[in-house]
Please model this.
Amino acid sequence: MRSTDKTLCGSYLHILRMYSLNFKVTPSRCDSDGRLKLFSALQMMQDCSEMWIDSEPGVRKYFTQHNMAQLLASRQVEILRVPEYKEELTVSTSVFDMKPMFGFRNTFIYDSDGQPCYRTWSMGAFVDRRNGKLTRVDEATIATMNLEPRQEMNYGDRRIILPKEGGEQHDAIRVMKADIDYNHHMNNANYIRMAMELLPHGIEVKGMRVEYRVAAKLGDMLSPTLFRLADDTIIVALYIGDEVSANIEFTVVKRP
Model:
């Protein structure tokens, strides 16, 4: 379904046409403090973004005819407030730009008062399901798209530059059956779940950037290297052999 969401941006009230799904913070989505896990929030965002294609019949038809998929290439997340157990949430997504091989979208999570808890923007890549290579959407299909204004948030670089030295290496992690999604590689949220296991105790994540490079598949061994850039920035790089599979940058604060 498409719904009208009202979001406060600066001093102006914008009414946007966005694709939305409703969720509730259930026990399985909570951490030990009874708050929504970042992993679960990312799954909600991904579900909404994937199902968005049902609201764009021209794009859906083109993707089906050409055996195409949209794969996440990067995402930036701003965490304004972490929802708690039993809260009712609305996840809304809209595309603000589309190129022949890439799409750009906002996905926000709102509480029951319509206030944003998470603000994100992401870039997706269009690929051929048969060979995993980038492929193009024609201009006629792009012209059918409902594009919305880019929403207000801080837009960082989608590229994450790793330090040349100083990383802490950790034990490799095997990609299990439960990590794989219907695109036959590791689901995007699972990279974040693995990386967060390496973060020090006593901190809280306030923001995140992730750059996906090489999709991890069943049986792959992901070798993590952790870099502490400053008191508020930690990067976890996940390698498959010598290649970076994903880089995840966390902005953190000490818990009170």
